[in-house]
């Protein structure tokens, strides 16, 4: 097994930086996700680690070995892409065995390994099937087995679920995590889908325009986004511009004036009075009530508003609320049994809201 280290890697296309000064480390056996929107440089980074593209600057190490100048086939990486590209005329068995046959491994060794892998991907008995006789999810698992056949030091996934429908993605992401964790291989997994990254990763780096904006575990990113970009990408839906009018240092809470409304927001040391800030509020962090909400701390954000819109999504009820004194409306999501309680409120009705976890970002 291997630790992957990317040090100061940049890649330019013309004068455009597809990647700029990327530094990251994936420890032995860790499943790392690179999460970022389309065009942020994810595939470029993965290809540089695989040895399919050379960086303009920086180095790539597998353990202490500098592999930057090694071609892909000498790096011993296993790759799984979005377009699976199984060989259509070969059986599942032959597809999985393909790389090992090229390397002229002994037949009984190949046979043993293919059987182990079929067990790992839970497709025992599928040896003779052709790719056309597999579902999308089964085909993707065969592609994973094929990548594992030569016992790669590092596993690389580039949006392997991208072409599958939502239901299949949902189940296959857990399946991929299970398979990868069973092999204990150091893995980099690229995706643009936040929920996929959260379900799969031990650790996540968020990539934005060729730069790593933040690294953290799913919980760290969710609880402590360092920029509005991260907050939005991780799921914040409401953003309000405002100005800090008071800071209570003993509790590290700022009073932010946004339009005509005061909101109390936890802040770090670097935000002081007079500062312009953007306040991020996740829709799931707004509690809605038909009755007056009691204040249980001096910094509770309790506001009054009017229901503008109500949409039943299924797992949750999305409410759009115009708050007295706020220019923009807020979106709140009600989960659990409560979502049925609010089905009977009408557009135009008065509602009370409690904002539980706002985040402040410096803003200029
Ligand atoms: P992602 O995988 O995150 O969608 P990519 O790594 O494929 O992003 O691409 C990052 C950026 O680099 C994009 O703006 C893309 O247009 C550009 N790019 C990628 N490959 C090339 C290339 N061969 N020539 C020019 N620009 C490229
Ligand atoms: Mg890509």
Description:
The protein has 2 domains: 4-229, 3-Layer(aba) Sandwich (Rossmann fold), CATH 3.40.50.300; 236-362, Beta Barrel (OB fold (Dihydrolipoamide Acetyltransferase, E2P)). Helices cover 24% and strands 36% of the residues. The protein has helices spanning 42-50, 92-102, 107-120, 136-148, 166-183, 194-200, 218-223, 228-233, 338-341, and strands at 4-13, 16-26, 31-35, 57-62, 65-66, 77-80, 154-158, 186-191, 203-208, 211-216, 238-248, 253-258, 261-266, 276-281, 286-289, 301-312, 316-323, 330-335, 350-355, 359-362. The strands form 4 sheets. A 6-stranded mixed β-sheet has the order 6-7-8-3-9-10, with helices on both faces. α2 packs parallel to α4. The protein is elongated. The chain starts with a strand and ends with a strand. Bound molecules: adenosine-5'-diphosphate and magnesium ion. Magnesium ion is lined by residues 42-43. Residues 42-43 line the site of magnesium ion.
Q: Please indicate the percent range of residues in DSSP E strands (runs of 2 or more).
A: 35-45%
Average pLDDT, rounded to a whole number, is 93
CATH architecture of the largest domain: 3-Layer(aba) Sandwich
Shape: elongated
Radius of gyration: 25 Å
How are the strands of the biggest sheet laid out side by side? 6-7-8-3-9-10
Distance between the termini: 46 Å
Low-confidence stretches: none
Q: Please write the CATH class name of the largest domain.
A: Alpha Beta
Total number of domains? 2
Number of strands: 20
In CATH, the topology of the largest domain is named Rossmann fold
- Report the bound ligands by name, code or SMILES: adenosine-5'-diphosphate, magnesium ion
- Helicity, as a percent range: 10-25%
Q: What order do the helices and strands follow?
A: EEEHEEEHHHEHEHEEHHEEEEEEEEHEE
- How many strands, which pairing sense, and closed or not: the largest β-sheet? 6 strands, mixed
Question: Helix segment count?
Answer: 9
Structural class: alpha+beta
């Amino acid at each position: 097994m291997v630790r992957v280290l990317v040090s100061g890697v940049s890649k330019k296309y013309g004068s455009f930086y597809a990647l700029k000064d990327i530094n990251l480390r994936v420890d032995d056996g860790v499943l790392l996700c690179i999460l970022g929107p389309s065009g942020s440089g994810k595939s470029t980074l993965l290809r540089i680690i695989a040895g399919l593209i050379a960086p303009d600057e920086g180095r790539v190490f597998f353990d202490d070995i500098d592999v930057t100048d090694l071609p892909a086939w000498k790096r011993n990486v296993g790759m799984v892409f979005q377009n699976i590209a199984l060989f259509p005329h070969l059986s599942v068995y032959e597809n999985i065995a393909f790389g090992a046959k090229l390397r002229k491994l002994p037949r009984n060794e190949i046979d043993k390994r293919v059987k182990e892998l079929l067990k790992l991907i839970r497709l025992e008995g599928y040896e003779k099937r052709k790719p056309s006789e597999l579902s999308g999810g089964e085909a993707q698992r065969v592609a994973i087995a094929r990548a594992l056949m030569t016992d790669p030091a590092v596993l690389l996934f580039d949006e392997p679920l991208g072409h599958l429908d939502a239901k299949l993605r949902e189940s296959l992401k857990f399946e991929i995590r299970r398979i990868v964790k069973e092999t204990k291989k150091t893995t980099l997994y690229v995706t643009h889908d936040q929920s996929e990254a959260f379900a799969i990763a031990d650790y996540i780096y968020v990539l934005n325009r060729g730069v790593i904006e933040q690294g953290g575990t799913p919980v760290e990113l969710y609880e402590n986004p360092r920029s509005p970009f991260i907050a939005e990408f991780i799921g914040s839906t409401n953003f309000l511009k405002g100005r800090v009018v008071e800071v209570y240092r003993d509790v590290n809470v700022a009073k932010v004036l946004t339009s005509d409304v005061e909101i109390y927001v936890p802040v770090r040391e670097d935000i002081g009075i007079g500062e312009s800030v953007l306040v991020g509020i996740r829709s799931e962090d707004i509690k809605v009530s038909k009755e007056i909400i009691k204040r249980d701390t001096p910094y509770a954000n309790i506001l009054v508003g009017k229901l503008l819109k109500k949409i039943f999504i299924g797992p949750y009820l999305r409410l759009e609320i115009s708050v007295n004194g706020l220019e923009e409306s807020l979106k709140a999501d009600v989960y659990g049994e409560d979502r049925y309680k609010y089905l009977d409120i009408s557009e135009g009705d008065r509602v009370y809201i409690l904002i539980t976890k706002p985040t402040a970002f410096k803003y200029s």
